[in-house]
Amino acid sequence: MFQLFKSNRTKYFGFRGDKLHTLVTILASVSFTLFGYDQGVMSSMLTLPEFNHYFPEIDAMEDSSKSTLQGFTVAIYEIGCMSGALFAMFFGDRFGRRKMIWMGSVIMIIGAVLEAAAYGLPQLIVGRVVCGLGNGFNTATVPSWLSECARPERRGILNMISAALNILGVMTSYWIGFGFYFVDNSANWRFPMAFQCVFAIIMLLFIMEMPESPRWLIREGHIEEAIDTFAHLEDTTNDDPEIIAKVEEIQALIKVEGPGIPVKKMFTFGKHRHFHRAMLACFTQVMQQICGINLITYYASTIFEQYLGMTPLNSRILAACNGTEYFFAACVSIFVIERVGRRLLMIICACGQAVTMLILFVTAYLADKKDNSDAAIGAAVFLFVFNTFFAIGWLGIPWLYPAEISGLEIRAAVNGLSTAFIRRYG
User: Fold this and answer.
1) pLDDT digits (tens, 9 = 90+) for 372-388
2) More confident residue, 313 or 270
3) In a domain, 229, yes or no
4) Considering the domain boundaries, does residue 233 fall inside one?
5) Residue 5 contacts by C-beta under 8 Å, 6 or more apart in sequence?
6) What CATH number does the domain containing 379 carry?
7) Environment class of residue 150 by beta-carbon count within 10 Å: exposed (0-12), middle (13-18) or buried (19+)?
8) Which regions span the lipid bilayer (predicted)?
9) Rounded to whole angstroms, how far apart are CA atoms 91 and 72?
10) What are the helix (H) ranges across 341-372?
């Protein structure tokens, strides 16, 4: 069912070692780019006249009382994401990493088609829920898959690259939204919605040709396949003593952790402190969300246009520039993550975000209530500054942290639960 291509071609397209690691990282990054694109795509839609023509029920620019339903339509996507993450928590280890990502990609394509073809609000809402469900599958699974395939010393950098490409998705959605702003028909919102399918199709076509997580294979008893996967990832032979030793080490670790249902074990205490690890993972994700980043990501154009008094064109240009700067700031984390460390980087950037948000509160108030143009400029600048602190310290680490601190036996469950938490508070 899951193997779309059956041929005699070389395994993993003939890639081994560093090249295979690069291929795994690229495909994981496509998933994160899709995640970012989904986050940003609604930003430029909400103030489009053509979009509001089809969905007048959520045209908050015409009637502010409709903002509640508009917020519901935007946020319902997160309910789908949370449901997908919970599914991954309970069933992720049953299907394996690749199959979960494959299924998530199929579901996302269905959701994107429903959204792009919508002629009424109910269909749009259903499409967003379905799309979110597929994204929940992927975001709960891809970090584990990438971490379990990567060399330990490279996990931090590889996850930061994927996180930066998540913002590449946000940036892409802003610029596509800006480009289609000049189209005078429903294609100006249908095409950006449908463009989600491009990333999902890439995942769909290639994920089953990638190596499965060798650690998951060992846990499921597929020892020979795990040895072969490690050999390809390390560009060596199946009888390499280091590969055999690595497999035996993981087997010993699984034996120490003992049998049990991963979801139940996640809530146990004892010497392995599974519950403590799970809560650290969950609340790191929660803290990432309640800082307010999604408010900026989803409503960037709306904030610039409705609250800072900019024209529709200028608000879209500034939102796209904001997304671009956000991407370049995210790239900084790639070079500092291993030098500074996880905790210290999060602490420094959390302090920067707190100060910036306080300044944003004051300047946005003056711009909106006192009609102060200088304050509006200041608010726009500090939106950029806030995104910079977030991108460096809080964008990628909360996705890396759960996979690093949880044991193999509960890793899929912890990632599913922590991703559900991030959706609950997003």
Assistant:
1) 778 888 888 888 999 99
2) 313
3) no
4) no
5) 209
6) 1.20.1250.20
7) buried
8) 20-37, 69-91, 100-119, 125-146, 158-183, 189-208, 278-297, 317-337, 344-367, 379-401
9) 28
10) 342-369
